[in-house]
TrEMBL record:
The keyword Transmembrane helix applies. The chain crosses the membrane at residues 112-130, 136-155, 167-198, 210-231, 280-296, 302-320, 355-372. The keyword Transmembrane helix applies. Keywords: Membrane, Transmembrane, Transmembrane helix. This is Glycosyltransferase RgtA/B/C/D-like domain-containing protein. It comes from the Bacteria.
Length: 495
């Protein structure tokens, strides 16, 4: 496990002074720009992500991670925002070991299972890479694992009041920080609750079983109510601006859940069976071999545990199908179950055939290093966003700090606004013709008293969309007239 800790810290050191311009830079910048504006005095709940114009707020997740990054940046003033974000992300990854330790006590006597799963977790390519990123994923994972640990301790610790308070608070936090991560753990919690209630009922403790079901159910209901209140509040803020209104929960429903054809597609099967295991363990062969071996050598009870963990890895793919197909980092939410299944199989096989654990762990570590080198190292050492950084640098030098720029062809990525340190009105390709007209006719409302000091025009779909190109051209003409242009990368910058 110490090797895993050292491995994660080493990866952080490699990227310490690098911009957050590797995989999914748009998502990292979206989180980072919110921290920047928190530090500049924006609200702590209606925090600003100034990429769509006034009122500048486009909240998605409840900003626990952002608050902590801002706090670290304020306390340790020598850090950059990027560095503070990476530190908090790594800290939450390492902190996951604490609830993992609590959980493994209920699956296995002694500490060997914890150390094996902990080592595989920290050496997992996907967790080692994203631990040193500017993402909320490790924060969401920490609270979700903590929820499962708190549930186990509450049920098996006499259902104490203090345990119930912990369970309820952590469930609410996990749901608020990132519900797409929490869903898989809530399903795991349902399994834990059902097994406990059934066993307790069979032992004749009917009232205790009923109490557990009702109390845990009420705790989950509280977390759902809190989540609903947050989503309603966040969507209300987004709806105040026609551009950001395209990103409310209802508007993104199809994007989040995907379609039935996607669920039936070979592409999803390849993600579940090959891409996911490759990035979690270094090779898809690892879980396949160990699961088949376990089916031959282990008892039915241990086989059920292994298969249950594998199932918890698989199910989220079929809930948030499109998200998992498009975004590799979404597997942080469920790859831990696959890692746990492999760790549990290793320890159980070692008990059946003593002497196996050492070689299996060495092989697991070697595959982890191999997987990191194959799938992540190149992105870590060589960011691929030079164009965006060049545009941001030009804007930072040529536009006053309190002014705004408009961007076409940048989609809704926060990369350029973040590194430019400027507010933006980004017009993504999905923008409808009525919204294009609204931006043109009510530009002053979007600017909210600020000056439009620049326009960035990159290749985009609006210019070729028959239903939109006339309104796009009218908007473009209105904001670029009487401005001079220069080429920056493959974009035009009008000032």
């Amino acid at each position: 496990m110490l090797l895993g800790v050292g491995f994660c810290i080493f990866q952080l050191a490699l990227s310490w002074n690098a911009p957050i311009s590797e995989q999914y830079a748009f998502r990292q910048a979206q989180t980072a720009i919110s921290v920047t504006w928190l530090l500049n005095g924006s609200g702590w709940l209606d925090y600003q992500t100034p990429v769509f114009g006034a009122p500048w707020s486009v909240p998605f997740e409840f900003p626990v991670y952002q608050w902590l990054v801002a706090l670290i940046k304020e306390v340790f003033w020598g850090l950059t925002v990027d560095q503070a974000g990476r530190i908090v992300s790594l800290s939450f990854t390492l902190a996951c070991l604490w609830p993992l330790r609590r959980l493994t006590r209920h699956l296995h006597n002694g500490t060997s299972l914890f150390y094996v799963i902990g080592a595989l977790f920290l050496l997992s390519p996907i967790y080692a890479f994203w631990a040193r990123s500017f993402m909320i994923e490790s924060t969401a994972l920490f609270f979700s694992i903590w929820f499962l640990a708190a549930l186990q301790d509450y049920l098996r610790g006499g259902q104490s009041v203090s345990g119930y308070v912990e369970l309820t608070l952590v469930a609410a936090l996990a749901a608020l920080v990132k519900v797409t991560t929490f869903v898989g753990f809530s399903l795991a919690g349902l399994i834990v609750l059902c097994v406990y209630a059934l066993n307790t009922w069979r032992q004749g403790h009917v009232r205790e079983a009923i109490k557990a079901v009702i109390s845990v159910g009420f705790s989950m209901l509280i977390s759902l109510v809190v989540l609903w209140l947050w989503v309603r509040y966040a969507d209300g803020l987004k709806s105040a601006n026609p551009l950001s209104a395209m990103f409310t929960g209802q508007s993104l429903e199809r994007w989040n859940f995907g379609t039935l054809p996607q669920r039936m597609s070979p592409d999803l099967l390849r993600v579940v069976a090959i891409r996911g295991p490759n990035e979690a363990l270094g090779s898809w062969l690892v879980p396949l071999v160990l699961v088949l071996w376990s089916l031959i050598k282990l008892s039915r009870g241990k086989i059920r545990v292994c298969l249950c963990l594998v199932g918890l890895y698989v199910v989220p793919f079929y809930i948030f199908t499109n998200l998992h197909l498009v975004h590799h980092y979404y597997q942080l939410a469920n790859s831990v179950f696959l890692v746990a299944a492999v760790g549990y199989a290793m320890v159980s096989l070692d008990e059946a055939m003593p002497g196996l654990l050492g070689p299996l762990l060495i092989a697991g570590a070697a595959l982890g290093f191999y997987g990191y080198q194959k799938y992540y190292l190149d992105d870590e050492l060589r960011g691929s966003r030079e164009h965006e950084l060049a545009v941001a640098s030009e804007l930072r030098q040529s536009i006053p700090a309190n002014d705004v720029f408009m961007g076409f062809g940048l989609e809704w990525s926060s990369e350029v606004p973040y590194y430019a340190g400027r507010r933006a009105i980004l017009v993504p390709d999905r923008t409808t013709a009525p919204i294009l007209r609204d931006v043109k006719d009510h530009l002053a409302t979007y600017l909210d008293g600020h000056t439009l000091a620049g326009v960035v025009v990159c290749p985009n779909g609006l210019a070729t969309d028959e239903a939109k190109k006339r309104d796009y051209q009218a908007l473009l003409d209105s904001v670029t007239s009487n401005r001079t242009s220069q080429v920056v990368g493959y974009c035009l910058l009008y000032r």
